[in-house]
Amino acid sequence: MAAPKIDAVDVKLLALLQRSADRHLAELAEAVGLSQTPCWRRVQRLRQDGVITANVALLDRAKINLGVTVFVSIRTNVHTPAWFERFKATIDLIPEVVEFYRMSGDVDYMLRVVVPDIAAYDRVYKRLIQDTQLSDVNSSFAMEQLKYTTALPLSYVG
Amino acid sequence: MAAPKIDAVDVKLLALLQRSADRHLAELAEAVGLSQTPCWRRVQRLRQDGVITANVALLDRAKINLGVTVFVSIRTNVHTPAWFERFKATIDLIPEVVEFYRMSGDVDYMLRVVVPDIAAYDRVYKRLIQDTQLSDVNSSFAMEQLKYTTALPLSYVG
DNA sequence: GGTGAAATGGCCGCCGT
DNA sequence: ACGGCGGCCATTTCACC
Predict the structure, then answer these.
(1) In 3D, which of B110, B108, B105 has the Cα closest to residue A140?
(2) pTM for this model (two decimals)
């Protein structure tokens, strides 16, 4: 089912877990007003239903030498499925590209790229335009990341 | 210290943990070729040094009714610190804004917003322009999210 | 949902290398 | 800095109400 039932207690659980998932089951259960077993069962169900897709560690970009974020707007004049498949496959193999969207409007695709410096970005850029035919590529550099969260708004559930 | 020493084994640990952090310590240890105690100590140290900032659950956007992603490019002609503080405070209070950058180039700020539909985006948009003075706001809608990962490239460490 | 309890596994000392 | 042992405690996962 595409829309598993998610009630108010589930929303509370999701809100907590998407902030920090390494809580003890005891405090999670207490926070939502359940005892441990049913609380644990709900979390299991949310995982099985695919609402919770993964449990990951978030790293400090600065501490692993990734101070620079670049947004790349891409236009192309080739619009065949074959071209797209190759383009997507290329992007998937570039770990510096952390986000990739197909856009509406004047830009066809948008990327978010993280790199240590401009020189490293240039290498990613060359790899991009070498493997695929792009008619127009526009790079915008972020000076500062003011907000970044993996916590999604939960007010629209249900 | 801004740059804690991170060796090849730490990189392996980080690579595994940023893919899935809910592994048993035993398999983590085996994967990096250590026994459990030193492996556990390394993970603790990476947390304490702030390399690992959090451990979070990732949710399926579609399953919580957030199918639409919007990139918002913002220009302003007010550049005082007071204006900026208010702008940032406003953004921080909008959970639909999941990313927020100060840019170089012709755009001053860039947001990524997640919402269920265009109508919901319009409400976020109104909230934005109501609370702050923005001279130019351009919204670009994503049709499809082709890649999204919280796993950062680890090839630049050290 | 709740309870209780058994099995598992993680935590964190100590000590040897 | 790694490995191993060991005891304590948290969590998981039963069977049952």
Answers:
(1) B105
(2) 0.96
CA distance B132 to B88: 10
A8-48 to CATH, choices 3.30.460.10, 1.10.10.410, 1.10.10.10, 1.10.340.30: 1.10.10.10
The third-level CATH classification (topology) of the domain covering B61-141 is Alpha-Beta Plaits (3.30.70)
A148 touches chain B (CB under 8 A): yes
> Which residues in chain B have Cβ-Cβ distances shorter than 8 Å to A121?
none
Q: How far is the CA of A52 from the C1' of C13 (A)?
A: 36
List beta partners, residue A114.
A69
- Residue ranges matching CATH 1.10.10.10 in chain A: 8-48
Average pLDDT of each block of 10 consecutive residues along chain A (158 residues)?
Answer: 82 97 94 96 96 98 98 95 96 98 97 98 96 93 98 96
At A45, give phi and psi (nearest 5°): -65, -40
Mutate to test the interface with A, among B23, B66, B101 (most CBs of A within 10 A): B101
Summarize pLDDT for B75-123 with one digit per residue, the tens.
999 999 999 999 999 999 999 999 999 999 999 999 999 999 999 999 9
- Average pLDDT, stretch B7-33? 96
Q: Are strands A109-115 and A136-148 parallel, antiparallel or unpaired?
A: unpaired
Q: Which residue is nearest to nucleotide D1 (CA to C1')?
A: B38
Number of H helices, E strands in chain B: 5, 5
